[in-house]
Amino acid sequence: MNVNFGAARARVKSLAAAVALVVVAAVALAPAAAPASERRSPRSLTAAVSAAIYDRAGVTAAAAAAEGRDARVRVDRRSGDRTWAFGVAVLTAPHVEGAYPDGWLFVARRDGRSWDVGLEGSATFRSLAAMAPRTVVLAHERAGFTRAGVKPQVIASGNTRLRLPYALDQTWAMPGGPHGWAGSDTPYSSIDLAGGDQIVRAAGSGSAYLMCRGWIRIAHSTGYTTDYYHLWDNISPASGSAISEGAYVGYTGTDITCGGAASARHVHFSLLADGARTSLYQKSFGKWVFWPTTPYNGYATHGSTVRYPGGGLYNYGRLGANQGIVDSNGGTSINKRSGPGTGYPVVGSVADGATITISCWRNGTSHAGRYGTTSVWDKLTDGTWVSDAFVYTGTYTIGPQC
User: Fold this and answer.
1) Per residue in 118-156, pLDDT tens?
2) SS3 of the chain
């Protein structure tokens, strides 16, 4: 079952019909010299956030209305003096293939008659989140909201430290391989998943947000964020409430409340960093590594095992920060040696696809594997050594040098 949502949505830029097509949710833009998310706006809160939405999306209110899109603003928290606000900002999409909604968290501050608005991922968002009262930006959110980007040790690695968004030891189909959030757009940040018990679960622990009916966002402590769309009977969490890895999120479905299309039930699963979609290239989920090629194609590998669209992905769980996946690059196992090089005796073997735990590394003899040529050797916790050329860790080295 292959779900294909076609080409990315078109962006209509005409300003000619602005007066005729402005609707209640569409607000006239201020001068284009500075994005609304980075400047003071003399509007009501809803109007100011709406303007920021259109600026971030690169469309005018009139053009968005002509496409059947509108800005939706939900305020989840306010300060007692009503000068601070936090919530969700969404730009809906038409109900057609190749169209998907955009959405961000926002922080806003009123100064006199004006509002400063910061959308997720912007410098203004980080700045306002750092200053906001604790009733507006919660204590457990502040570190993630004020950090520019994913934690360096995580972003430098393809290992997301996340599982696949369903129960461990289940195998689900990947009807749509790596593709853009809206289909053929880039980066290829998303995959479609369906099957098993159809229960969608959190890929990792974090803070949960309801973006729209059928659409849940989870901000993880690593700095990555995951989106889950098309859900049925999804949770409606209190904004920013804690969610545990593996917790129920919803059922796979075909919900398109905020736009787009879905011809068969599935979860549209996407990865973001710092408020923007990020490529799945060599990223791992559930100990599968993803290789985008063209939209809805590409494949995933677990060691030397390859799965193409329509194939099943067994959920092995998340890959730990000091772990690797043995990838013999076509073989059935790799040798373990007593030292960092082929000049040392073979003292055992480890199967292709096995998970290993690494204590430190050292340079030794050079070898070539799926991920290139390297002289790095990994010392395992049992004291044996394997060539890093035949191990996926998502990074060049793990742990200290031995």
Assistant:
1) 999 999 999 999 999 999 999 999 988 987 656 655 666
2) CCCCCCCCCCCCCCCCCHHHHCCCCCCCCCCCCCCHHHCEECCCHHHHHHHHHHHHHCCCHHHHHHCCCCEEEEEEEECCCCCEEEEEEEECCCCCCCCCCEEEEEEEEEECCEEEEEECCCHHHHHHHHHCCCCCCCHHHHHHHHCCCCCHHHHCCCEEEECCCCCCCCEEEEEEEEEECCECCCCCCEEEEECCCCEEECCCCEEEEEEECCEEEEEECCCEEEEEECCECCCCCCCCEEECCCCEEEECECCCCCCCCCCCCEEEEEEEECCEECCCCCCEECCEEEECCCCCCCEEEECCEEECCCCEEECCCCCCCCEEEECCCCCCEEEEECCCCCCCCEEEEEECCCEEEEEEEEEEEEEEECCEEEEEEEEECCCCEEEHHHEECCCCCCCCEC
